[in-house]
Amino acid sequence: MEIILALGIGMLAGSGVWLILRPRTFQVIVGLSLLSYAVNLFIIAMGRLRTGAAPVLAAREAGDPARFADPLPQALVLTAIVISFATTALFLVVLLASRGLTGTDHVDGREPEP
Amino acid sequence: MTRFADHLMIAPVVLPMFAGAMMLALGGERRRNVNAALNVGTTFALVVIATALLRAADAAPTGVAGVYRLGDWPAPFAIVLVVDRLAAVMLLLTSLLAAAAVVFSLARWHRAGVLFHPLFQFLLMGINGAFLTGDLFNLFVFFEVLLAASYGLALHGSGPGRVTAGLHYIVVNLAASLLLLIGVSLIYGVSGTLNMADLAARIPAMRTEDRALLEAGAGILGVAFLVKAGMWPLCFWLPATYAAAAPPVASIFAILTKVGAYIVLRLHLLLFGDDAGASAQFGGEWILLGGIATIAFGAIGSLASQDMARLAGFSVLVSSGTVLAAIGMEQIGVTGGALFYLVSSTLGLGAFFLLIELVERGREPGADVLAVTREVYGEEDDLEESSEVGIAIPATMAILGLAFIGCALVISGLPPLPGFIAKFALLTAALNPSTGAVSTASWVMLPVLILSGLAALIAMTRAGIRAFWASADRAVPRVRLIEVAPVGALLLLCVIQTIQAGPIMRFMQATAQSLHAPDDYIRGVLGSAAERPKRLKGPT
Q: What are the phi and psi torsion angles at B50 (to 5°)?
């Protein structure tokens, strides 16, 4: 499972970095989204990979930490997802405003000189 | 402390949040006067609260005025807010700058776009939270709050220039926020804690094989904050964004780079101080080199800028570079001088951003570009002007000119204003180290700092001559009292900083002292040494 997750994070991050270096605003926003997915997976990985372990203690049960998944990275990733979702939506608005005001989807607001 | 005073610590976060939410609930744009009144009231209340916290922090023997445990859970598990001298002085600086910016905006700028007042309050909430928090992930959240508000404010007034600059600003900061998340989660994965004090307590006992991963995490975290502090080569977005932003917004943005520098200062000395074992001074030389490169880049940029707003943007870089380089030197005296410099340069730059708009108001756009082009091609100005000697200077221009001279003195670091005292203190401390010989870094710092002051002086003088000694038939800008008053107030604060230089410098030195010996901070957050968690290793 570790190798699949590592490859997944690597592919998402690689594609994301390539896309945010592109000159079109739409490519940049897709790149930022891919990068944020890679980061979210990375945060989960930092809590160690566990399958079939709950992150919450059951009621009236002695807590043995070894039997549970680390709940903190899951809380962190939830916050990170919400924040990156909100900022991506905000960026989308700016992208559309820029397209409307400058008439081009180039990140500099004008086409490069040929 | 009484019960009420305990809760005063969280007021700098909660008060702007409620004020901003209330403005939206009361109808947002339709009730602009109510919003404006709420904004001014809240901002001035923040000045009072920050002053009270500063007094409390100064009176506390350890420098830590208090630790606010949210939900009253014990410290390493819950999120804590910590008020110490550094946090208190940054809070006060933010609220003073915000008060000036908000009064200035009332004249006309708050009508230039929608929701200026709520966004302004949310920005203050984010900045104050970032100064107060003692938890790394909480720091990320407050950073996102302040950035989200700053995206809105950077676009305030709209127009193609602002939208294009804002687009770059948003992309750079979103990418930096992702780096921040990677750094925070790496540090959590290695150490098993997000509490800054707890982390500082665990680092000395960390195993060697974990240390590399921890330092990688700290390095990535550092890069994220250095993007925000505007360190070269991560700073190319900054001058364009600051030049394009509306003047009151640019003025409050002068503190944003200092938020990045504050975090670097706090975390560098807390996590990688002398007690950190094998990781001591990790990254110090990079901050120093980056800071010096930033000063050089900012100085060259300010000489090359053709309009005042860009000149101010590059001056922000010089100021931020000076603070970073001083942090990288890791000497108590230098840090104290840097804190003094941070306060004076932020106030001066805030005033300068406000002043630019007043001066530029009466001129046709592009006048500066023409002026510089004329210089290059050797064309003389019209000679007819000599016949106009003896015409009284209009009072408005005289006031604006005096304010401009004040800003130039603060930014370039000339006496009698505090920029000079700050640089003098910084260099004196660098050249008289308490132990050992003067380091190479100090010898590099000396010419760089002095030459950057000279570059700022040349650039400011040239801009001033073009703005104030131009042909006399130019229209005198119509300026209202509430637009000049904030500029004057900020410069008056600089003058007060000069007059009270002794006590303020003693306070800054005490702040630097406690930053370099963070035991009190750690003990203040985690409780007494006996209650410290025994488990010093990370999860395996």
A: -65, -40
pTM for the whole thing?
Answer: 0.88
Flag whether pLDDT at B7 surpasses 50. Answer: yes
Q: How many domains does chain B have?
A: 1
A 12-71 residues with CB below 8 A of B?
Answer: 20, 25, 28, 32, 35-36, 39, 42-43, 45-48, 70
> Do the domain assignments include residue B443?
yes
Question: Which chain B residues have a beta carbon less than 8 Å from that of A70?
Answer: 539
The pLDDT of residue A47: 82
- Is B296 contained in some domain? yes
Structure tokens at B538: 């990370």
Please state which architecture CATH assigns to domain A2-51+69-102: Orthogonal Bundle (1.10)
Q: Do B539 and A76 touch (CB under 8 A)?
A: no
Distance from CA of A16 to the nearest CA of B (A): 10
Six token digits for residue B128: 């104050």
Per-residue model confidence (pLDDT) at position B471: 61
- B77 interfacial to chain A (CB closer than 8 Å): no
How do the domains of chain A map onto residue ranges?
A: 2-51+69-102
Q: Is B196 on the interface with A (CB under 8 A)?
A: no
Look up residue B201 and give its two tokens: 């307590």
Mean pLDDT, residues B213-227? 91
- Contacts made by residues A50-56, CB under 8 angstroms, sequence distance 24+: A51/A1
pLDDT digits (tens, 9 = 90+) for B391-410: 455 677 788 888 888 888 88
User: Which residues touch B527 (CB under 8 Å, ≥6 apart)?
Assistant: B74, B75
Report pLDDT for B322.
92
Residue B480's domain comprises: 283-376+394-516
User: Do A42 and B182 lie within an 8 Å CB cutoff?
Assistant: yes
Closest residue of A to B163, CA-based?
A98
Whether B357 is covered by a domain: the verdict is yes
Ranking B41-45, B87-91, B175-179, B280-284 by mean pLDDT, the lowest is: B280-284
Does residue B190 register a pLDDT over 80? yes
Provide, as residue numbers in chain A, all residues whose Cβ is less than 8 Å from the Cβ of B195: none
Q: Is residue B186 part of a domain?
A: no
CA-closest candidate to residue B287, choices B327, B255, B320:
B327
Nearest CA in chain A to B160: A101
Query: B500 touching A, CB under 8 A?
Result: no
Q: Which amino acid is at B90?
A: M
Q: Is the peptide bond before A23 cis (omega within 30 degrees of 0)?
A: no
Is residue A107 less than 8 Å (CB to CB) from chain B? Answer: yes
User: Which tens digit of pLDDT belongs to each residue from B413-466?
Assistant: 888 888 888 888 888 888 887 777 777 888 888 889 889 999 999 999 888 888
CA distance readout (Å), B66 to B57, B131, B155: 8, 14, 37
